[in-house]
Amino acid sequence: MASNRLSEEAEGASPSPVTVPHAKVAGIIPLLPLETRWPSVTRDPSPLRQYNGFWIPEMILKGGFTAVHSCFEPRPSDVFLSSFPKSGTTWLKALAFAALKRSTHPPFEGDHPLRHWNPHDCVKFFELDLSAGEFEALPSPRVVATHLPYSLLPDSITREGSGCRIVYVCRDPRDALVSFWLFMRKVSPSFTIQEAFDLFCQGRCTGGPQWLHVLQYWEASVRRPDSVLFLRYEEMLREPESHLKKLAEFMGCGFSKEEEEAGVVSAIVELCSLGKLKEMEVNRNGVNNWGTKNETFFRKGVAGDWSNHMTPEMAQRLDRIVEDALQGTGFTFATSA
């Protein structure tokens, strides 16, 4: 349960027999397969290491991941927002925060936190920010974010009866790839779409393989629908208000008839829209704790933009890889084009 067998060091290699508890993974990092070609989003370079089948930044395995498994104490009322990077994370954080905290921060107020803070400041990643000691001080219900695969979450969160709720947002792999590449190019301008594409197809990117990341959460949502809500980014774009109501109901803070009639749902959707968030001063000129400009988290936020950056041949190759990997699972992506 809390331990893991080392992943294969290369394609075709035999798995390593070494087994360790997740909380002690820092001690075996030098033994894990290494990937240095995917850029780091932080000020300091951080290569990827393959652990439990996924490519995770070494700095996370050394720090936050260990803390998550040894120090983090979940509460039954906790809500965890999970995603593969660049899959609608910023939007989901804003929507969940605004819905969950609307009694103390009505969406109509001019001093709403989202007007002064980036969504990533309102909802922290616990594998990145746990060492700051902020989570214990947060009042319940807490909303916490993670990019960790489902299999790498602490058992205290995923086990039956924990009470914790997990919300996952899934995105078309092609759009996730293009959005991730354009984001990484902000910190590594020479990083080409071909380089990003080749690595992504091999699963050698932060959190990759993307389709297996998605699959684990989808399977968990099928097994435990009361504890894991699986959302599709493309469907959220088409019907944001109905998905916000579904999200709020799942988090245990459903909207009343009076709130809906008063326009609270539409006000939250408007407050959290990409257009509105882009206009906020903090998102135009602010910088986060990782040294990344807040503006980089806001681009088009649309479905199907991959076609402006990938060739049809690239898209077909990625489609085949994903289809082969998901064959027999029962899961398929809702394609954006």
UniProtKB/TrEMBL annotation:
Keywords: Transferase. Its EC number is 2.8.2.-. Residues 76-330 form the Sulfotransferase domain. InterPro entries: P-loop_NTPase, Sulfotransferase_dom. It comes from the Eukaryota. GO terms for molecular function: sulfotransferase activity. Pfam families: Sulfotransfer_1. Belongs to the sulfotransferase 1 family. PANTHER family: SULFOTRANSFERASE SULT (PTHR11783). This is Sulfotransferase. It comes from Paspalum vaginatum (seashore paspalum).
